[in-house]
Amino acid sequence: MIRKARLFILIVCVLSVIIVGCTQEEPPEDNTPDTSLQEVKEKGTFILGLYDDMPPLSFVERNDEIAGFDLELMTEVANRMGLKIQVETINSENGFLKLINKEVDVINGVIIDTETETNEEIEFSKPYVDNRSIMLVRSDSDIQSKDSMQNRTVGLVSNSEGYHIIDEDKPFVESIAEIVEYDTDQEAMTQLGIGAIDAAVVKETFGKYVIKQRPSEFRIIDEMGSELHGIGFRKEEDTFREEMDRIINEMKEDGTLERISKKWFGNNLIL
User: Fold this and answer.
1) Which domain holds residue 206?
2) Are residues 140 and 213 in the same domain?
3) pLDDT in tens, 59-102
4) Are residues 232 and 117 located together in one domain of the fold?
């Protein structure tokens, strides 16, 4: 009898757990309205996070002022929204964190990567630039293409998109003399200019910015990869993001983005 009583009690307990689990209500959906655009307009300004070491997208000029394509783009966006911007410098280590912690309202020049964990808290605008990698040589070089790089040296930025593209091209790696790694595109181009390397792989925006300033010194022999750039927003701030997307599309249609692109890159790189 004792065993039967214990078995009965055990069955009752199990059934109670099952019943409670089945009848437990799902947590209510968050129906809080998105007022992000309204809040920004009420403030009359938004804080823009910009990198200060990515010429010509955004960089510090000799007068210690931030300049570049991204700043000019966002200044025009703010003007069309009837807003002002306040610039806050960011870097690759703190940019997304500052956005999540509401130290900035948006960050510009971000690489749109839908696979990263950060995207659980970050939403991206529609991309406006495909910042591919390009290979450049000096204008007086006898190298005419990537295929004629046998026994030559190529410089590139460590762990960059260009680095991974080159590293995966095993026949190319085996045919050249050496890959020299640098910290920045600027350093790679400087070393190419003085003849320390035979070719450099850099971001298209930066490479064409340099060519625009020094057209007789360098030329492009190859283009590779794809790296979409856009604007980063906090999740759930859809009305703010959608309004910026609308305005950027308007700027594409009326030719404003093309004008800004040609000013900074020498070409129209707008998607």
Assistant:
1) 133-224
2) yes
3) 998 888 899 999 999 999 999 999 999 999 998 788 889 999 99
4) yes
- Beta strands 66-67 and 58-60, pairing class: antiparallel
Distances (CA, A) of 19 to 6, 25, 247: 20, 12, 53
Q: Report DSSP letters for 171-239, one per residue.
A: HHHHHSSEEEEESSHHHHHHHHHTTSSSEEEEEHHHHHHHHHH-TTTEEEEEEE---EEEEEEETT-HH
Query: What are the backbone angles phi and psi of residue 62, rounded to the nearest 5°?
Result: -65, -25
**8 found inside a domain:** no
Judging by beta carbons within 10 Å of its beta carbon (0-12, 13-18, 19+), is residue 14 exposed, middle or buried?
exposed
Query: 171 lies in a domain?
Result: yes
236 burial type by CB count under 10 A (0-12 exposed, 13-18 middle, 19+ buried): middle
Write out pLDDT tens, residues 115-162.
555 567 889 999 999 999 999 999 999 999 999 999 999 999 998 899
DSSP line for 19-85: HHHHHPPPPPP------HHHHHHHHTEEEEEEESEETTTEEE-TTS-EESHHHHHHHHHHHHHT-EE
CB 133: neighbour CB atoms within 10 A? 25
Residues 115 and 242 placed together within one structural domain of the fold: yes
11 lies in a domain?
A: no
pLDDT band at 14 (very low <50, low <70, confident <90, very high): very low
Structure-token pair, residue 166: 């080159």
